[in-house]
Structure formats: structure tokens, C-alpha cells
Design brief:
Tetracycline Repressor, domain 2, mainly alpha, homodimer, KstR2_TetR_C (chains A, B)
Amino acid sequence: MARPSGSDAGVTGPRVRDAAERLFAAHGYAAVSMRAIAAEVGIGAGALYHYTPDKQTLLFQLMRAHLEEVIAAWAETDPKGAPADRLDAFARFHIQFHLDRPEAVFIAYMELRALEPDNFAVIETLRRRYEAILRDILAAGVAAGEMQVADVPLAANALIAMLTGVTTWYREGGRLERGEVETLYAQMALGAVGAQKSSAKTF
Amino acid sequence: MARPSGSDAGVTGPRVRDAAERLFAAHGYAAVSMRAIAAEVGIGAGALYHYTPDKQTLLFQLMRAHLEEVIAAWAETDPKGAPADRLDAFARFHIQFHLDRPEAVFIAYMELRALEPDNFAVIETLRRRYEAILRDILAAGVAAGEMQVADVPLAANALIAMLTGVTTWYREGGRLERGEVETLYAQMALGAVGAQKSSAKTF
């Protein structure tokens, strides 16, 4: 089949990915058919194959795009200063990025089980690359005498789980503003590794 | 249909729940049929209805039992001493309990979406009751001047997510022993709320 040309492909491709993300998050990858994705987009099942060869490719591309985006977004955000300030910035960044993408977060955790081995290996490599950002900050903090971390990989895992967990309970318009939530989590992250922001230090 | 009597019901009931838990965790609730659960147990699809009226009831009972168990198990474990020592004990307890039940943890997070409203309300009430244990410890720690917690409900959510996250990466026989993992997470939990174990205090 020929690929749809020009603006049609450019508009419908993202709509296919959005629909797949929404349905995978709502029902689980295994329970969603290509036909259901096509219906959600409002195109025929046959037309869907113009945009993706199969459901596994859709899942893989969603998960890969999510991780590539978060890695690229941090590179833009990293203040590259003192380790404690970088940890503060990382905690705020991680919460902002993930609160904006609750469905992608849910799928990233839930559907690792559904990835074929080659795809799983690619996703695992990207996930480790993102975790390595935090590991590097913690290692720099220990080296600088700013942090107390007995096991850097464990601490990175623990902090990422703590920060990501905000997506399970935070609701816009609730008791706390996003900025307050970011500040409180960042303080807890710093406390968990025995650090404080350089601006908060008492000399 | 008559209920199977005596030892058969007592042996097969738990096997039905184990099979459902395994299949829900592996494929997602929506993708698992009653027929598939019966096949996993090795009984006929008709016989399965001796043990449960439907799939929703199975899911609900699994999630309810998990939460009732963790609440009861903590009541047995709670050292009822200084708040910082209770937090240390809670962190270790939470990790031990959840590392022993990775499939139940996965389902508890993933399949909230699949619960019917009445069942969801029951599960939410139990979940809040468990979270209240940690909120009470933190509030007592603040009252005793042992902890610095700007927002107790937020801090409880953050710590529970951090501790539960251990199930996503810890593997028996890996680099770290369970006891080490418990100690390191408990230290991070205490640090996150500005506390330390009473035995670690310097006078």
C-alpha cells in the first residue's frame, strides 16, 4: 500500500499515536485491537496500516518517544551547577514532565511486559540512560561532600519512584498547586540524600 | 449449581485466586477471560463458577485481600515506640511485604481502572486506611519535634511510592541483600522527613 502523502500523513500519524496511547492506558495493550485504534481515530482498519505495520510497533514507538523526549528535555533544563542544585532542578523537572503525560507514564510501567525482546532491550537502554542522569548527579554530590548516599544506583531508583508517584495522586485544581508540590518533593529528595540547596545553606 | 464440598473447595479456591492474579498481572484484566482462568487452574469453565460469580469479583477480592492483609500485618509489626523508630520499622515492613507479592502490587496499581464504582470505593477506603498509618507516624514525628514535614499527606504518598518502587527493580540473588535494601530505603525515608533513628542519634 502507498503511504498517504503530504498533510494527511502529517496530521493522522500523531492522531494514531494519541489514540493508541489513550486506549492502551485505558484497557491495556493486550486488550486493544488494531480495529479499535482505527475506530478511535475515525479511519478504516485497512487505512491504519498506512501509519504503522502493527500494534507492537505502535507500543514500541510510544515508549521510545517518551524516553527520548524526557532525556532531550532534561538536557535543555540541566542547570549544570552544584550537585544539590541540579538534584533540586531534576526533581522539579521530573515532576513537571511526568504530570503532563500521565498516560505515557502508566504505559511505560505497565506494558514493559508486552514488549518483544528486541524492543525491550532498546527501551531498557533508554531507561538506564535517563536513570544515569540522576546517578551522575548523586555521584557528583557525594564527591563534592554535598550528599550522603550509601548506594548510588539504589538511591536513584528510589528517588525516581518517589517523584514519578506524584502522577498517581496529584489532580489539577486540588489542595496543592503544582509549584508547591515540586518544592515539597524536591525538599524530600534532597533530604533523602542528606543534602540541601546551596541557597538554603547556612554559613 | 451446588458448591463443591469439603477439601475440594478449600484447595481449589486459592488456586483460582492465584491463577487469576498471575494472568491479570501478565496480560491485564481486560485481556483475560474466565475460560483462560479455568484453563490455568485445570478445571472446566463451568466449574469455575462454583468459586466466583464473575471476573470482576475475582479482581475485587484479590485487591481487597491484599490491602486487608497489609493492614493486619502492620498491626502485628508496629513497634509503637518513638515516631522515627516507627517510620524505620514501617519502611522495612512495607518493603518486605511488597517484595513478597510483586504481582499483587502490580495489579493494585494497574487495575484500579478496571474496578466497578462500588468496588473502587471499597478499595480506595482500604488504601486510605493503609496510608493513614504512615500519615499518623509522620504527624506524631512532627508533634514530637523529631521530623520536619511541611505537608503530611503529600509526604506519606511520596514515601509509599518510593518504598513500593523497590518491586520494579529488586531481584533476589542480585548485588544487594534484602536486608541491605531495607536499611538503605529506611535511611532515605528518615532523611526525607528530616529524622533519624533514635539509636543513631548523637547526644
